[in-house]
């Protein structure tokens, strides 16, 4: 299957709702964590580190984009991102599969919650939040 061109991807991101962009970022982050897991298990340190760096970059971006208009939600997400980042740091420095697994579990939970917002299972109006 042919990959979409850069212009198509740019248009897709620019026209998607904020929540759909968050979901895409979570999915990409989880892909990087999967790659990090494969590299960690194989003992390939450089690819593991690169995959973790990319995942952490996404989390730093998501954390910096939190909107103060909903302080309770933003603080909760900030705290969760910080816990995930701490686990990824441990996964990197200690080659900990367990820490990586915990980070993946928490991120997958967040992804599921945001997917619930899009499918109507979450809080009404949340798709309009500015992240």
What key attributes describe this structure?
disordered C terminus; mainly alpha; globular; Four Helix Bundle (Hemerythrin (Met), subunit A); 5 helices; single chain; 131 residues
- Count of domains: 1
CATH fold title: Four Helix Bundle (Hemerythrin (Met), subunit A)
What would CATH call the architecture?
A: Up-down Bundle
Q: Supply the CATH class.
A: Mainly Alpha
Structural class: mainly alpha
Could you name the CATH homologous superfamily? Answer: Flagellar protein FliS
Q: What's the total count of β strands? A: 0
Fraction in beta strands: under 5%
* Overall form: globular
Radius of gyration: 16 Å
How many DSSP helices?
A: 5
Through-space gap between termini: 32 Å
The H-and-E topology, N to C, reads as: HHHHH
Instruction: Characterize the biggest β-sheet.
Output: none
Give start-end ranges of low-pLDDT stretches.
Answer: 122-131
